[in-house]
Amino acid sequence: MVITLAGLDPFESLIEEEPSVVESLPVIIPSEKKAIQHLSFDSYHEMWLNLATSTKPNEKESFRKEQKELLQNHKYLLYGKFSKPTRSANDLELKKKNRLEQFKKLYQKPEPVPIEPTDWEIEAHELLEWTRSLVTD
After folding, report:
1. Distance CA 44, CA 31 (A)
2. Phi, psi of 96 (to 5 degrees)
3. Predicted TM-score of the model (pTM)
C-alpha cells in the first residue's frame, strides 16, 4: 500500500532514482598527500593583490596617497586649516609652575593678619580689667 500526502510521491521513489545519478559521477581518490607549504603573509598579500587587480601595488599606493591628499584638502576647505602652536619644553615648565602657584594661592590658608585695636576697644578692655579688680563682698 502506497500513501501519498498532499499529492507528493512517497520518499521511497526518490531513493530508487538516486543510485543511477551516483554511478555516473567519477570518483577521485587522492593518490599521494601534498606537503603543507608555509607562506609569509606579505608574499600571500602581494600575490592576491596582483591577481585581484590589474594595477601594480606601487600604483595602488600612489592612488591612495592622492585620495588622502584630496580628502585632506576638502577638509581644509570646509573647516579651515589650523596649525598647532609649537611649544618648547621651557614654555611648558613655566606654564606648569604658574598654574601650581595659582593653585597654592587658592587652596592655602591665608596667614592671620595682626589687627591693631582701636581706641574704643582699648577703653573697653581697661574697663573690664577695672571691674575685675573691684572687691566684692
Report:
1. 27
2. -65, -40
3. 0.23
The letter for the amino acid at 126 is E
Among 42, 71, 69, 68, which Cα is nearest to 57's? 42
The 10 Å CB-count burial string (b at 16+, else e) for 17-41 is eeeeeeeeeeeeeeeeeeeeeeeee
Q: What H or E segment, with its residue span, contains residue 60?
A: helix 57-79
In tens, the pLDDT along 16-56 reads 554 555 555 566 666 666 667 777 888 888 878 777 666 56
What is the spatial distance between Cα 118 and Cα 125, in angstroms, rounded to a whole number? 11
**Distance from C-alpha of 110 to C-alpha of 113, rounded to nearest angstrom:** 9
Other C-beta atoms closer than 10 Å to the C-beta of 49 total 13
C-alpha cell at 119: 581706641
Q: What would the grid cell of residue 19 be?
A: 543510485
Rounded Cα–Cα distance for residues 77 and 69 (Å)? 12
Give residue limits of the domains in the chain: 49-82
The residue behind cell 594661592 is 105
The DSSP output letter for 55 is: S
